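The freezer alarm interrupted the setup, so I double-checked each line after restarting. Inputs confirmed:
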Amino acid sequence: MTGGTEVDYTILSAASSVWDGAADGLDGAWRRLHGTSGSPMDAGVAAAFGTFRERWVDEIKRIATRSQSHADSLSDAVTSYTTIDDAAYERMRALLPFDYRDSTLDPLGSPPGLVPTPEPGPPPTPPTDSAPEPPTPSPGPSPTPTPTP
Amino acid sequence: MTLTRVTPPDALRTMPESASTVANGIRAVGESVSDSQEAMASRGAPAGWKGSASDAAENQFTQISGDLDSAVAALGQAATAMDAFDDTLQKLFSRRETLVEEVSAFNRKVDAYDADVAASDQEDAEAQEALKARYAELESQVAALQGRVDSWNADQDAADAAVIRALQAVDTVAEGDKAAADPDRPDAAALADRLQDKVDAGDPEAVAAWWATLSEAQKQALMIHSPELVGNAGGIPSADRDEANRTSMLSDIDNLTEREKDGQLTDREEDRLENARDAQKTLDGYKDRINPDTGENDAFLLIFRPDAFEGDGGVAMSLGNPDTADDVTSFVPGLTSEATSLGGNMDSMERLMQLADEKNGDRSVAAITWIDYDAPSSADGMTDNPLDFLQVATQDKATDGGERFADFVTGLRASDQGSQAHFTAIGHSYGSTTVSHAATDQVLPVDDMVLIGSPGTGSADHATDLMADGNVYVGSADYDPVTLLGGPGLGALGHDPSQADFGAHRFEVDPGSYRVQDLLDNHSSYFNQDSTSLDAMADVVAGARPDEVDGRTLGSYQTLDTLATGSSLVSGGEKVWEGAEWTGDKISDGAGWAWDRAEDAGSWLNPLD
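Predicted 3D structure, all chains:
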């Protein structure tokens, strides 16, 4: 990812969920407040409560709207990053040898694993407890054919 | 001479219940906003997110968290004001009732005086002197009484003015900011920590003493911050617990309804929402039940734990304030009871309360339904088969439930006001086993105990194991098969308390129908209107002794196998019990008897629902 953001998608999703949850709670709150009234109630008290109620309904609704907007932005960002990274991954995969095209990206950020893992080569040093093979005698130079008289 | 009549007090312009409704709404809004604010403060900017976007988000979190804090502060002050208004209105309501009676009585005296003057003989000096004396006496009273009426009117005006001022003080965002920054603002989080410590210490008396030291602003802040803690804490006054639990309930409904609209509810949240809605529905059913002394709603939500027991929920509700009532009863229903079983059980409590109220003279009554234990349910394998009483319903949940019930009653004792109430615990079916465990395993501070439809008394061998003074009353219908599970001998859930040698006071219960199809109904008949059992329980609740009948002795009643066979035969023979075996503590799986085909399975399992 580029553009000043360093975050795993899951973290962005979690942040989006926090905003979304807050927006849900606040939406429920302003609706509750908007519907709160008592009857019978003294006209002066009812008017004072009405002013209080509507002022804070507006404020809580404003914050709820903003919270939902942030939640949506983060959710959109996750979608965008995922799409971008999917495209990049496809391009990278296309450059890999055929046997490595099933490689997956490690979500924790470590380098992509290679599948299948290449077979290890032979050990550089032979085991110390094995007897060395006896040297094979050199066949020596081929006899020079004698010219036939 | 003409006497002036006293002008009655003005009408009460705001009913206490109206102020209470508004206060509950404000608190619920406060809790929802507070929860959102805390979520942002604690989880808003995730660790591991760095860079300019993270910085921007952090700024937004901080900004919005601050805005929400101002809203919480304003809502807290408004809730405090409205709650104080409610308290004042209750006092005004009560004073006004008295004043209206006094004014009415006084004015009747004046009317009588005027009539006597008109009819008097002006030449009769003696009669005229007597009238003069009456005039002087009435005139001396009129000023004092009118003064009290005027004072009441002024107090009402002052109450209105006070709440108006308080609301106007926080009706702008700037004033909310100022309230949030007020150094005297209660620290709700710190108060919650202190209350939690006291609750964990298990000393409701200490909780009650500490709560009494708090200011109204502190109490309201705590109710908004941690309503579930306040609402379920023994020792806190029932009226405050009710306010806190209603706050939780309304906030849950508001928040989870929004998530429901978004299709985001988890299974557990669905249970929570269902339990909250059911509690509100039950409370709404009693919204017109107004206490004539206070003008307040007379239903109290004493426990609200919608998440408890893997979503079954825990709940307790009272009709009448148990802190001020003279006679209090708490009822524990049986198998498969859960939070949504509240409504049907409250109907039973209402019938019991009304009857007890008629029996105890001037004493007041409060009747509680307590469903805050994990009664065996379908999740445990309970089916519509009564054999599950023995094969599935072990004593484990009665033991755990008994501990919770004892804690609940102990908490109520700590919040009791005035002289200690007379307290009766009632358990039905598996609930009777639960109440028994509360008595044998814990300290259960009750005066009387009633066990009805009992399958067994847990580890109690005798009534004195339950109540040292033996105040155990038992109702067992002869044809209620569940009451035959505990004896003779020892059943899986303990002894049958209606056995004579158990030593309880057995009261008369209608035996019930002998048709096998009706045996299930017999188990659910104890609270039926006009039943002998309801009357007897009302006696106990009212502090009287019901008429007693003999306890069961071998040969004096039909044992389970006899009842099953006999009732099957009189029902036409098509439901003959095929070879059930009584083995002393269980019936064999092969019984395969007619109950399996009982039409009213739901009624069997949760007969009061």
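Quick read of the result. Chain B touches chain A through 64 residues (CB under 8 Å).
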